[in-house]
Structure formats: structure tokens, C-alpha cells
Amino acid sequence: MPLFALVDGNSFYASCERAFRPDLIGRPIVVLSNNDGCVVARSAEAKALGIKGFVPFFEIRDMCERHGVAVFSSNYALYGDMSKRMMVVIGGWGIEQEVYSVDESFITLDGIPNLKDYATRLRADVLQRVGIPTCVGIGTTKTLAKLANHVGKKFPKAEGVFSWDWLTADWQDKLMARIEVGDVWGIGRRISEKLGTMGIHTALDLQRSDPREIKRSFNVVVERTVAELNGVNCLALEDVSPDKQQIIASRSFAELVGDFDTLASAISHHACRAAEKLRQQNSAARMVGVSICTNPFRERDSQYTGWIVIPLVHPSADSAVITHAALAGLRAIYRKGYRYKKAGVILTEIGPQGLEQRDLFVPLPDPRRAKVMAVMDRVNAEFGRGTLRLASEQLQRGWAMRQEQRSPRWTTHWEEIITVR
Predict the structure, then answer these.
(1) Where would you tag: which of 31, 94, 187, 416 has the fewest CB atoms within 10 A of its CB?
(2) pLDDT of residue 398
(3) DSSP for 198-258?
(4) What are the residues facing 257 on neighbouring strands?
(5) Where's the UmuC domain (predicted)?
């Protein structure tokens, strides 16, 4: 029987900020969303102050000043690089590894003796080499490992490491009964509300439920969750993440935007970013969707939402082709007189490059374009994203994201590397 461990970074974004700032040890930290709008991450100290997640920052600004909370804008370059470093270290402790998210990784530990000591040394290694505190949950299924990780974080006596096998059956039931069903992996708010109407309120209730009734009321995914809670392994480790079937690049503006040129710059940037993601997974898209919308929370303003999908003659991952289609879509949906809050590009009908069906009556794309895109990707990978870009991305810069409190990109930009005096 396989044995899974779920290893994740504690308050990951906040921990990344603290890793390079020893003066922040013990100090509450919050990290804000794009444009410094809402709280997206909190350290344990910030949670102890009662700061909630995803609340608008202006509502807690005074509290942060009173309690000396360190406030940071999102620094995704830093977080992404720290994630890669952490996953490399974690992977060295597992037999197999699946990187599940930016701060979570499943590994298998089949046949490893003294798991308590092993997991404790794993945590110490990540902390020493990367600077990120972690928690390890161990179980015979991925769902049980994920739930064990929840226990390891919630109960201080676990000291960051927990396995269901360390408890007797009676104590496992008692602990399961203390965990709300909404804390089980894959059980969201709507499903947990419906489960509540069926008398299922805890993880133990779900574990003891009738799988056939669960399947009739929900779907096979929730049925598999019940099986996994009972130790039946239904979810194998994914060595390679599946290709995305939809790619979205969008962002809210720091300030409301009314003119077409500024919107066009934003749409061009998002189209290029989406095309880059396509090329990273060796895919091509046939449909390019474009959306723009005003701010629905400004009720005194006139409201408008525009959305259109532009089909491509040939599926493509070429930044110029996708941007051309996206700008054509923007011209079709743009309306003067409105102040827009958000714009985005969505790529759909995605498939592998080279396997798409061609149109017999339209000339094939110039094969040299793929080489141009490859060169652009290599240059941007070596010298930083945006080193080479389309001219249309630079028409206006009024749409750029607000990051007034961003920390230095310590690990990815030479000019911001840490200096030791």
C-alpha cells in the first residue's frame, strides 16, 4: 500500500517575506493582492490579531498601524522562485513527487522507517536551505495526507508533523469528529452546505456515509473522497501536471481606464503572457476571448461588460497572432464613455502543437515564426520577462499594477540582490 505525505509551506507568501528579513521574526505580516486591494496571506501572528483573509486593506489599515503589522504588496517573482527552491528540496526526500500548487507538494514515503523522525528532518532541511517553515501530513491516501496536514497545522501538539497511523482507531474517529466537513480536500462551500442538509457535518460523518447515496447526490469525485477517507487509494500521484485546457491572463487596473490605447496595451500584454504559457506546454489555441468590464462596486458609474471570442484560422501559440486577434476583439467590444476596471484574455480549444487540423484553403503559417517565438522566450528567460515584447504593449502604461509596498525580488533580479554589510 502506498504512503503519501503532503508537505506545504506555512503562510507561504508571508514566510517568503520573512526569509530575507530576520527583523520580522515574531512580527505580524500581511500580503496584499494585485493593486494592494485585499489581504491574500497572513502570518500566524496576523491571524492571532483577528485579521481575516480577503478583506479589503482599507478596512484594516488602522489596525495594522496600531499593531505594527508589516504590510507587503504581492511579489510573485520572489514567491515563484522560492517555491521552485522549496520543491527541489522536498523532492529529494520523497520516492516520487507531485507538485500540487505553489506551496504544496505530495511525495511518497513507501518503506521508510521511523516516519516521525524522517518528516521532522525533512522540515528542518527545508527551513535551513530555503528558509520556509513547513508542515507534513502523512496518510495512506492523498486525501488522508491532506487532512493530516490540516491536523498538523491546527493542533500545536503535533509540532508540524502528523500521521493517522500514529493513532488508534478510536482516537482517529474522535479526531475526525472534530474536523468540519468543509475542511476535507475537495469539499467546497456549496457541497458542504448540501452535505449539512443530509446530516453530514464532520469528516467522520462523511467517512461513514453511504458512497452510493453520495454519488447519487453529488458525483463520482465526492464518492472517491469518501473512499479515500476510508483508506481506499483512488488518486494516483501525477508525475507530470496535465496541460491546461483554458488559459486566462487578466488583471484589475490600479486606476480606472477610459481610453482605448491604454486598454489596448493591457490586452496586448495579457495576450502575450497567455501565448507564452501556451508555448511552455507545447500547445496551441484556436479561440481567443477578450473581456473588459467596469467596476460594479461603483454604483454611481455607468456599468458595462464586454465579451467576445475571436476564432483563429489556424491554432496558434504565436504572440503576434494571438495579440492581433485580441485587439480585433477589443475594437469590437470597446465603448466610449465608460471607465474600465479590468481587462483580460482567455485562450480556449487548446491542443498539442503540430496535431491541429489545418484549413486546406488558407496558406499555412510561416514556420519561421516558431523560431522567432523561441528566441523571444529564451531572451526573456535569461534577461527577465518583458526584455523582448511587442510594441503594442508599450502604447500606454497607465494600466500597470499598483505595488506600492513590494519587497525586493531578492533571488531573481541582480539589481535587487541582498547586500551583506
Answers:
(1) 416
(2) 61
(3) TT--BHHHHHTS-HHHHHHHS-HHHHHHHHHHTT-------SSPPPPS-EEEEEEEEEEE-
(4) 340
(5) 4-188
